[in-house]
Amino acid sequence: MVDLTDDEWAAYLARCHDGELAQLQALNASYEGGQPLAYMHPELLAEIGEQIRQVVVNWPRLVVDAVEERLDVEGFRYPGADEADAELWRIWQANGMDEQSQMAHVDALVMRRAFLTVGSNPRDADTPLVTAESPLQMYADFDPATREVRAALKRWNDVDPFTGAVLHRQATLYRPNATVHYEAAAPGTWRVVDRDDHELGEAPVAVLPNRGRLLWPGGVSELADVLPISDAACKIATDMMVSAEYHAMPRRVAFGFDQEDFTDETGQPVSVWSRLAGRIWATAKGRKEDGADVIQFPEAQLKNFHDTIELLARVASALAALPPNYFGLVADDAASADAIRSREARLIKRCERKQVPLSGGYERMNRLVMRIKTGEWDPQLTQLETLWRDPATPTVAQKADASVKLVQAGIIPVEQAREDLGYTAGQLKRMRQMDADALTRLGSVGDLAAEFGPKPTPEG
């Protein structure tokens, strides 16, 4: 692409973002359970009207949350270091990234990607500012040669909290040489209100992609496969409620009755809906000229709906790599620890796969953080390691037993065992201090064995 001016980049990125915004909003609505009813005939929708609401089987949220709950960052470690870096973790926590990272993971899984922006902090020069951004507000362009972000644009509105009216429309353009802040001057036009010529050489933006591809580095939604199955389940569940309303309870038919026969206790005629709710169908035609007859139809069974929803749940379970019990299905194997781990094998591997591209985004974020903090690029940060909590779900007793055996066999040191057990960087630091304090106290007491006589010699 021919090099563009800042204003041209802003206009180009805004057009690209507008082109995919409707898709992102639809994906977000599906996660929130607000997707429209699919596969339903419009005539049936018109007949039902307001009587029955759509039944939302929110499998998209189940699929996303089951993965996100296993993605927890616990620290960042320099190459060759034995422990997580305290300064990087301090900046992480100072920016509230414990909370923001969880929200960013959800947005990335649902809407293909999330973003991290890095900049100087006017309130604390030693703590660069890091924020997680939604793809509903931000769009990035990737260099086809290097797949690096060459420009990114964030747009947002300042809204009146009382009226909901838009007060100001603002935007920020992130480029390798500068960060430019815009404000809407008129419909379709922007004016520059601030500019930071940082000359970093790369845009201060990191991407957290989900399922990135070679030609689609921006990622693919985790819901792409399960959404059609979820829409079908919502339709079947809604059909089941319609059938329950009209056919799941016995219906009675009365012959030989006229319209005047359906009145309430005051003699007023009852409405058609009251007669339906009372489950009586009437006609003026009788089987006998001088009498009336009432018959009852058997109720309809809903098992066909149950079986269809169960089939769709099994398909969704396979596509999402989730154990059947996550969808309320009864598993065929016994609920032993080994069976549980076997069910979750694909889910665990999928979470581990997602940690790799997410780690790339966080490591790029830390390189930018230290560049802004120190003014220089640290070559060691190119080998930075992101520490994740184990996405598997063994019991505490199982993990502790395995760690003790590995330490006793001399395969791993105690420090590695503590890390494997999932202790945070702060907890590990306190444990090391406790170990040092215990050694200090032991040294101050002296040699207790001397009170019980001379020590034996090697020859003795």
Describe the protein:
The protein has 460 residues and is α+β, with helices and mostly antiparallel strands. The chain is built from 13 helices and 13 strands. It has helices at 6-31, 42-48, 59-68, 86-94, 97-111, 227-246, 272-277, 303-320, 337-343, 345-374, 396-408, 414-420, 425-445, and strands at residues 73-77, 113-119, 129-133, 138-142, 149-159, 166-174, 179-186, 189-196, 205-209, 251-255, 280-283, 293-297, 385-388. The strands form 4 sheets. It has a 5-stranded antiparallel sheet with strand order 4-5-6-7-8, with helices on one face. A 3-stranded antiparallel sheet has the order 3-2-9. A hairpin with a 6-residue loop joins strand 4 (138-142) and strand 5. Helix 3 (59-68) crosses helix 5. The longest helix is centred in the C-terminal third of the chain and has 30 residues, at 345-374. The protein is flat, with a radius of gyration of 32 Å. The model has no long low-confidence stretch (mean pLDDT 84).
